[in-house]
Amino acid sequence: MGRIIVITSGKGGVGKTTVCAALATTLANAGKRVVAVDADVSLNNLDLALGLESAVIYDLYDVVCGNCRLRQALLRYPPNENLSLLPSVHPLGSVDSRAFAEVAQTLAETFDFVLIDCPAGIDEGFCRAARAAGEALVVTTPHTSALRDADKVLGLLDGYHIERTGLVINRLRGDMVLDGSMLSPHDVGRILHARVVGCIPEDDSVLFMCGTTPKESEHHTAVVMLARYLLGLDKGVYDVTAAYRGAVGRLRRLLKKI
To answer: Considering the entire predicted model, what is its pTM?
Structure first.
């Protein structure tokens, strides 16, 4: 059986869908069979993040309603056929928690990883996604409002059958961490009493991604490290401050302020 991992955040706008898409493509590039599931039946964006919006014919709602078979709704990701997407495009569609869990379990029989892009918030959509998963990644940014919502999500996850929970800190600025104007990953982990398993830097190249970013980018390197953590190959997280240390790093920090 494959691993079912819900990727959640509590607060919207922290980059959860982008993290899900990038992680899915990275795991697929590592040779794993991956399916990304858009569990947001009202504000779906995972098809856009993967550049597959024009290919959608059937979606999650069609599957649970019996309008199509599960394999008919799955979309292959052209750059790598190890990755598939189960989209969700019905704006008013309602998906029962039990039916969604059955879909996730069925996918886990075929795929190594089932990554569920959870809706923001802690209402029905969150409960539906969390009930179906065995593991969780909570995405946050190092900002007060995002941390507050992540703390609520972490508390709620304790009530589900989640075997492992990890914290992914997105949109970190290494220069600001060193200047003391942004919380460090250590500070965030301490505040939330959670293990930080991924640190992803702010990177403008993500704005143009369709599931992937340039291999030379910091974002790509950070996501690869997160994928290696999930694969049990690496326990480290990306050091967002490394590029801003030393003489060259100090110059970079100075240029950031100009």
So the answer is: 0.94
